[in-house]
Amino acid sequence: MDIKALADKYNDYIIERRRYYHTCPELSNEEKETRASLHKDLEAMGITDIKEMEHCYGMIATIHGGKPGKTVALRSDIDALPVKEETGLPFTSKNEGKMHACGHDNHMAMLLGTAKILNDVKDELCGDVRLVFQPAEEVATGALDMMKENAMDGVSAIYGVHVWGAYDAFPIGNSMACCHKFVIEVEGKSSHASAPHNGIDAVMVSSSILQSIQQLVSRMNDPLNPLVITVGTVNAGNRWNVLAGHATLEGTVRTFLKGTQVEDELRKLVECTAAAFGAKATMTYTYMTEPVINDNEQLNRIAREAVTKLYGKDTLVEIPPMMGSEDFSWFGKDGIPYIYGFVGSHNKDWDYMYSNHHEKYDVVEDILHRGAAVAAQFAVDYLTETAQ
Questions:
Q1: N or C: which terminus of the chain carries fewer CB neighbours within 10 A?
Q2: Beta strands of 2-156 (E only): which ranges?
Q3: Model-level pTM greater than 0.90?
């Protein structure tokens, strides 16, 4: 089978579908019409084994191969962001204040293209391909919601990619960091600003906590372990001439560590710093995503060989780990091996490329059929190898 030729054949279809989904973005947990359109697209291909999730807007579909074998899953996220689009594209968002600013329109189009390719050669497949359309990636709940509804039952491995930067890459080992969220509540004591000794200044205590957090990263963390702790919001006080009696800090932790060690150290630091000033601090800590770590040797090899087989060694580059996050790794929480990579979406002739989540974010559409081809090649090669 000539995967590359089939991808070229469906290039126009993939671009047309990308542009359609770009015009009608829906936010996380609101992807009802997006799912309905995807359902119709699959049925138009002749794919009928389709299941919609009951408690989220996720959907799975299965292409049944003509030969016995395992089941490999290919995943696309489908939600958009609350961003007002400013790209000026002729197919700009029609939904005010909503935009596919992270590129999930491209992911859907690529997976539809992959479905076209694999459906054409299904009689030659040594097993089945599960197409996974996942909602709510941007709020990091969609993968877990689908897992709760057994979307991965029978799956032996899962593959995912993201449009990103100027390279095709399947990094070995650490790929994307976890995303944890914390909220710190500082309880002090209000007093008139002219008599600070009668109160406990929650703003000052919060400032000390902020400085201590930076020391946790620079002096308490092993420098060989990537760790970012960022406080994004601080809210305190009711009036300019009154000591704040309460403050709320919200932030995020990014690391490749697994376990509770960062939470434990952060909680101790927060509580003890506040106590030193006679205040009280409590912290809630949420594990939103796990780190994405490509540690399966077989999947690493198959994915990287799929890229080089189709488009040559020069297209596959080595990249360092990223501290950005993804909820994709939740699909592997029950022991299902996974591989996660990146599809280069930057045109070398562009002077500048706006980053994901920017209101002017766009991709060069020439790469979409390549992303579809690599996913299809990976699925074919994985099923062939594991059937032997």
A1: C
A2: 50-52, 59-64, 67-77, 126-134
A3: yes
Contacts of residue 195, defined as CB under 8 A and 6 or more positions apart, other chains included, come to none
- Cα-based angle 190, 192, 197 (whole degrees, multiple of 5): 75
- Which residue in 273, 264, 202 sits closest to 234, CA to CA? 202
Question: Which residues does residue 99 pair with via DSSP β-bridges, in sequence order?
Answer: 81
Residue 23's contacts (CB-CB under 8 Å, 6 or more residues apart) are 91, 92, 93, 94
322 pLDDT above the threshold of 80? yes
The CA-atom distances, in angstroms, between 361 and each of 18, 29, 209, 349 are 14, 22, 36, 16
Burial 196-211 (b: 16+ CB within 10 A, else e): eeebbbbbbbbeebbe
Average pLDDT, the chain: 95
Q: What is the pLDDT of residues 84-137, one digit of tens each?
A: 999 999 999 999 999 999 999 999 999 999 999 999 999 999 999 999 999 999
Distance (Å, rounded) from C-alpha 315 to C-alpha 311?
6
Bridge partners of 246?
Answer: 187
